[in-house]
């Protein structure tokens, strides 16, 4: 249901309601000119055509960025995390009776949702940035009480996730968008089980700088999503093109005037395994309840401009209320340098990214047991959320 509409749909009715919307959305998406393989100019920089389309639309679909062998390692490790999850919400053991994964970390690795529900829409969660509730189709009678929704801490939970965090092409994109002194944001693995996955209500990610005198279309940073399985219009992200340029949206009014959560003009970010989406954190976006037959798993992690973070007060998650000074930014940024070295050790033939804030300090942040314990463990307590 939306903020103004009281509807109860079956799974089949929800699929039917999405059909025409999906067809029209895909046509609009393909006309935008903001998808294609990653390519570079003659100087080895991200090609300006990609950046033009990203800044014009607020998002870009990069095709075939992550190779098949790396995707298979990420799928294996992600599936292991899913297998080691608590047997049900609140359990301390997994489905095989083993201690559930993540007990050694301070922040919970797993979050849960009632099947096909919207856990944040119309609430004050996440700074109240999801003011309008999504439709919540009625799950089948044999559905579990809860399903996985997100998993946190990919850099400490799986070595392949840490290596992905140090991917040279992705970090070069971060540098191109946010400057050579860019900083981390956070990361999460979004899980949309087939026929059961919950929705994420329409929102803009940014919370801190809407009224800043320095506000512009990039002040709240961006997110990558690395797709491990096909991301479809039914299970994936939908974005309203150009909204990153328009300031803070009145989402509740948009949904009300539209008469439905299926906002006119939105487009789906459909893509294949190994594709990577870049989404501006000010772009208006959502994902619908996954009534399709397709699983979606998206490894999501973002980056900021340093000047947007320094001196700001945290607004999200574990860092809410924390003032981000130089020490805090440095501590969280260490993860990038350790990730670069972890990747270098695993892919020695690959050219490593040079992260400017740690030039000359590389030997202090090698990937080993010391950095696992001192830098990587519980790193997500120091996320930089604005």
Quick take:
By secondary structure, the protein is α+β, with helices and mostly antiparallel strands. The protein is built from ten helices and twelve strands.
What does this structure look like?
The protein has 386 residues and is of the alpha+beta class. The protein has helices at residues 11-30, 48-57, 68-83, 154-157, 159-165, 168-178, 251-258, 306-309, 326-346, 369-376; strands spanning 35-37, 59-63, 110-113, 147-152, 183-192, 200-203, 222-227, 237-239, 267-268, 276-280, 285-287, 296-304. The chain has an 8-stranded mixed beta sheet with strand order 1-2-10-7-12-5-4-3. It has a 4-stranded antiparallel beta sheet with strand order 6-11-8-9. Helix 5 (159-165) crosses helix 9 (326-346).
Secondary structure elements and their pairing?
Layout: H1 11-30, E1 35-37, H2 48-57, E2 59-63, H3 68-83, E3 110-113, E4 147-152, H4 154-157, H5 159-165, H6 168-178, E5 183-192, E6 200-203, E7 222-227, E8 237-239, H7 251-258, E9 267-268, E10 276-280, E11 285-287, E12 296-304, H8 306-309, H9 326-346, H10 369-376
Parallel strand pairs: 1-2
Antiparallel strand pairs: 2-10, 3-4, 4-5, 5-12, 6-11, 7-10, 7-12, 8-9, 8-11
Helix pairs in contact: 5-9
């Amino acid at each position: 249901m939306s903020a103004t509409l009281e509807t109860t749909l079956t799974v089949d009715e929800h699929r039917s309601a999405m059909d025409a919307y999906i067809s029209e959305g895909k046509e609009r998406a393909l006309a935008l000119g903001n998808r294609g393989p990653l390519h570079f100019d003659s100087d080895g920089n991200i090609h300006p055509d990609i950046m033009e389309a990203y800044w014009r639309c607020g998002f870009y679909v990069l095709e075939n960025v992550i190779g098949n062998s790396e995707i298979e390692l990420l799928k294996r490790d992600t599936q292991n995390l899913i297998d080691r999850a608590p047997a049900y919400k609140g359990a301390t053991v997994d489905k095989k009776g083993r201690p559930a994964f993540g007990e050694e970390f301070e922040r919970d690795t797993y979050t849960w949702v009632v099947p096909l529900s919207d856990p944040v829409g119309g609430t004050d969660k996440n700074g109240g940035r999801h003011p309008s509730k999504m439709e919540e189709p009625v799950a089948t009678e044999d559905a579990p009480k809860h399903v996985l929704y997100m998993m946190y801490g990919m850099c400490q939970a799986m070595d392949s996730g840490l290596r992905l965090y140090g991917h040279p092409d992705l970090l070069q994109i971060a540098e191109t968008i946010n400057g050579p002194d860019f900083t981390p944001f956070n990361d999460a693995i979004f899980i949309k089980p087939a026929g059961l996955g919950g929705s994420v209500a329409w929102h803009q990610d940014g919370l801190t700088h809407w009224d800043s005198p320095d506000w512009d279309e990039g002040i709240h940073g961006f997110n990558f999503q690395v797709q491990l399985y096909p991301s479809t219009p039914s299970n994936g992200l939908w974005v309203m093109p150009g909204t990153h340029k328009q300031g803070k949206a009145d989402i509740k009014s948009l949904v009300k005037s539209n008469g439905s959560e299926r906002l006119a003009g939105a487009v789906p970010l459909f893509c294949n395994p190994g594709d990577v989406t870049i989404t501006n954190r000010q772009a208006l976006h959502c994902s619908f309840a996954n009534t399709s037959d397709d699983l979606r798993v998206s490894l999501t992690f973002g980056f900021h401009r340093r000047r947007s973070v320094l001196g700001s007060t945290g607004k999200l998650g574990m860092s809410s209320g924390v003032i981000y000074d130089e020490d805090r930014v440095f501590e969280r940024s260490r993860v990038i340098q350790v990730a670069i070295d972890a990747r270098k050790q695993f892919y020695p033939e690959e050219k490593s990214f040079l992260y400017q804030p740690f030039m000359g300090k590389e030997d202090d942040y090698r990937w080993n047991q010391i950095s696992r314990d001192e830098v990587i463990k519980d790193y997500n307590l120091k996320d930089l959320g604005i």
